[in-house]
Amino acid sequence: MPVRNIWSLEPGECIVAEVLLERLRCEVFFPVHDVGVDLLAVKGAKHVGIQVKESRYFFRKRRSGHVLGHSWHQVKRAKFLKGKVDFYVFLTYVPVVGEHKISHFDNKFLIVPSSELEKRMAVKDAGKRQIYRFYFRFEGEKVWDERVAVTLQNPLTDYSEFLDAWELVGKALG
């Protein structure tokens, strides 16, 4: 059995664990080997499995000169179907430009229950490799998956309700 190097955890996992400790006052555990869950949040007798997906925010300039950006996260269909994860936390590092260059990164969190993510994956194509790709675009308090046709008739592309929705994890923990 391969053992995970617990001395070099992924930065996103540590950041999410820190937020869980501060906001929800729960215990957080890291699995020693890959079981399909990055973190286990525990409060009393209740627990939730959390998968952390992290990405930098990528900017691109359009011909019009308008600058757009998005993150890029991937979820493998086979791992998703194992069903051990209660919440997916999509962590995006958004660069903040200072006077001349990037001065730091803001963390944007989308906390999406697995049951909700499953519904939203129905409007996506996993492709030959069976990997769902999410390209989240942030504009103020609005967040949507940029690579799915955004229409008022398709509310499954709007992820705004999940922006910093830590209360969903808190409710699951009781």
Number of strands: 11
| Arrangement of strands in the largest sheet | 1-2-3-7-8
Molecular shape: globular
- Total number of distinct structural domains: 1
Rg over CA atoms? 17 Å
List the helices and strands in order.
HEEEEEEHEEHEEEH
On the 0 to 100 scale, the average pLDDT is: 87
End-to-end CA span: 34 Å
Helix content: 10-25%
Reported for the largest beta sheet, the result is: 5 strands, mixed
Count of helical segments?
Answer: 4
Q: Structural class, from secondary structure content?
A: alpha+beta
Task: Describe the fold and architecture.
This protein has 174 residues and is of the alpha+beta class. It has one domain. Helix content is 20%, strand content 38%. It is built from 4 helices and 11 strands, in the order αββββββαββαβββα. The protein has a 5-stranded mixed beta sheet. A hairpin with a 5-residue loop joins strand 4 and strand 5. The longest helix is centred in the N-terminal third of the chain and has 14 residues. It is globular. The chain starts with 10 loop residues before the first helix and ends with a helix. The model has no long low-confidence stretch (mean pLDDT 87).
Short summary:
The chain is an alpha+beta fold. The chain contains four helices and eleven strands, in the order αββββββαββαβββα.
